[in-house]
Amino acid sequence: MTTDTTTQGTAPATAPGDTVLDARGVTMRFGGLTAVRNVDLHVNSGEIVGLIGPNGAGKTTFFNCLTGLYIPTEGEVRYKGQVLPPKSFKVTAAGIARTFQNIRLFANMTVLENVLVGRHTRTKEGLWSALLRGPGFHKAEAASRARAMELLEFVGLAEKAEHLARNLPYGEQRKLEIARALASEPGLLLLDEPTAGMNPQETRATEELVFAIRDQGIAVLVIEHDMRFIFNLCDRVAVLVQGEKLVEGDSATVQGDERVVAAYLGEPFEDAPGDEEVAEVEAAEAQATPGKENDR
Ligand SMILES: Nc1ncnc2c1ncn2[C@@H]1O[C@H](COP(=O)(O)OP(=O)(O)OP(=O)(O)O)[C@@H](O)[C@H]1O
């Protein structure tokens, strides 16, 4: 049995500027509520792309459609030209990793163990090898631990490798989530509100970390409410409002677009849904709430 602990994914390699993620016409409905409507978005290799929008705009739902947590009602998502499988572990194996808005670490495992869990899609050790703990298993385990330590070094947590995850301060838990996502050796990293709850220094450090990730050849798509962070960081920003993509462009274009300001201030913009549509959405939302999954 062999173990692949290198950085090779299953998707073909891309050159800088090639499209890594290509989402077309993605629509997600929950009963009568359309949370995401006909959204196109692409991310190129070497890019950091931001996804912003007011609360409830559909950002996390869209992420869930990209990562196999939801199967879009309509539309298609391709990663490096291949249609994504409708299962989150297969999407991770294909090369897309993510973090969550609400931290999802294994609280009672060590920092190192959390990163090792993230490596499972890149190791091929079989059941018997693991049970018998033969030389193949030990070699694979040593290689995985070495890579996990490298990643902890990269995010600045190597000295805390043996600490329990739950004892880390909040900002470090977010870094650990990123290290765990990187452990699957992704070509695209999706970050859902990576600076939520951070102080300005931690936010600045996260910005540097995301640049460093991009410099390693990993494309990044990031949801964030901190506009300073987004506009400093991103090559391109897409704005979702009420499930639809309102504007997309570089930071200056998006910041200068009055429809974006209006959307954040709650003022109606041209082509905004009318009162009837809003009432329809609210009614559907009220119906859908009891069954709402706890994915955030
Ligand atoms: N599983 C679900 N079932 C029913 N409705 C859902 C579900 N998930 C999300 N929604 C609804 O879809 C809409 C978009 O929610 P979503 O969480 O994607 O927005 P968001 O832009 O990520 O918001 P925030 O910035 O507050 O995190 C909301 O009206 C939400 O209530």
TrEMBL record:
GO cellular component entries: plasma membrane
Domain ABC transporter: 21-267
Protein keywords: ATP-binding, Nucleotide-binding, Transport
SMART domains: AAA
A GO term, aspect molecular function: L-phenylalanine transmembrane transporter activity
Entry protein name: ABC transporter ATP-binding protein
PROSITE patterns xref list: ABC_TRANSPORTER_2 (PS50893)
Biased composition (Acidic residues): 270-283
Organism: Streptomyces ruber
Name of one Pfam family that matches: ABC_tran
The keyword Membrane belongs to this UniProt entry's keyword annotation: no
Gene Ontology BP term (one): L-alanine transport
